[in-house]
Amino acid sequence: MLYAIGTKVRLRYTGERGTITGILDGDMLQVRLDSDPDIEIPAFEEDLLRDEAAEPVSAGAKFIQGKQEKKPEAPPARRLQSQYKILKPKGLQLAFEPMPGRDGSVSRYKVWLLNDTLSEFLMEFDLFTHARDVLSVDDKIPASTALELGDFLSDDLNEAPEAFLRVKRITTAGVDDPIEHTLKIKPKQFFNSLLTAPILNVLAYQFVMIDKFDQDDERKKAI
Fold first, then answer.
1. For residues 105 and 99, what is the distance between their CA atoms, to the nearest angstrom?
2. Radius of gyration of the chain from its Cα atoms, rounded to whole angstroms
3. Which of 84, 146, 185, 220 has the CB geometry, 3.0–4.6 Å to 80, for a possible disulfide?
4. pLDDT tens digit string along 6-25?
5. What is the pLDDT of residues 71-96, one digit of tens each?
6. 3 state SS of 190
7. What is the average pLDDT across 193-214?
8. Is 7 helix (H, G, I), strand (E, B) or coil?
9. Cα(183)–Cα(136) distance, rounded to whole angstroms?
10. What are the DSSP E strand ranges found in the chain?
């Protein structure tokens, strides 16, 4: 453990600053955000950096500016292509893949958008709760592809999470009109949705977001 309660830290990928307020299980720490002292969030130790600039300086000590640390970029989102031919397209689905810790408990999920269709889409996705914005992604998702969106914490299930998806299908005739859907996720509903996810071929909690499109049956030839 590199951090103690009271240590000033920065979140590695967002740059937000805060203070360690608690030690959690599974290599996680509780962080109170400087931007909103009423909010404390769990964070993995590997996702934190010591905020040396915010540490108290001893009286009379001379401050020397150290080498500026280059802010690491978030790794690119993974795209997994299906290895089989889609016989019965099931539409665009949202999947939450459990990510067990060392002790086997699950405190976070990897979120995927599954394009189980023969079409390509421009997409806008937002996942949010009453307490915070969890994910926001604008991208393009090819046919028969799983697109990695980010991480979702187990604690977020208690904060009335909602997922919003807007898509535009890309065809040889151009781009279709947008279709959108908002999903309200309830804990009981969530834990009753464990199935083998298409394309990923792993157990995941999944929800159909959009399965009906204008001029359905894919009569337009997708790019």
1. 8
2. 21
3. 146
4. 888 888 877 788 898 988 87
5. 555 567 788 887 766 667 789 999 99
6. helix
7. 91
8. coil
9. 15
10. 8-11, 17-23, 28-33, 40-44, 48-50, 79-81, 91-100, 106-116, 120-128, 133-141, 145-153, 162-171, 174-175, 179-184, 194-196, 203-210
